[in-house]
Amino acid sequence: MNKTIIITLLIISGIAGLIWWGSKTQNSVESTTVKSGEKSSLVALETVYDFGKISMKDGIVSKDFTITNNTDKDIIIPRLVTSCMCTKALIVREDGTTNGPFGMEGMGHVPPANETIVAGKSIIIRAAYDPNAHGPAGVGVIDRFIVLTDQSGSDLQLEIKAVVTP
User: Fold this and answer.
1) Which of 70, 129, 146, 165 shows its CA 20 to 30 Å from the CA of 57?
2) Sheet containing 140-149, strands listed edge to edge, beginning at the edge strand earlier in sequence
3) pTM of this prediction?
4) What is the CATH number of the domain that holds 116?
């Protein structure tokens, strides 16, 4: 009887420790990936999108954000990253060709974007979120970021939110 109680307490402690460690790791990754540099010259009419309730069984959801260069000079985007491995970003040019996908730093190779947005022109950033990426533990509220960094080091941050259900 005592062995059963001790083993049960050890298992519960281990699970609690893993949950605590996982939450600290995720918060640490998001805070280091999503930096707040100077505001970019790029403009997005919409920077936050809430999918509302989404189901894991329905799979990947995506949102297109239009990014415009309202300046009189071309802007180069050397870097495009996401805050989590469950989120990917793709650059869709005016002619329909694409660049990417781009993901989270530290979780495999993230290629440089090296994308030029011509003065007065726009591109689409397609954010795709996979509700199955975290498995059954991934249900609940999510808040993910896509960060474009221009050649001056300024950031434009896009955000997607959802409530994930099984």
Assistant:
1) 146
2) 48-55, 155-165, 140-149, 79-82
3) 0.74
4) 2.60.40.10
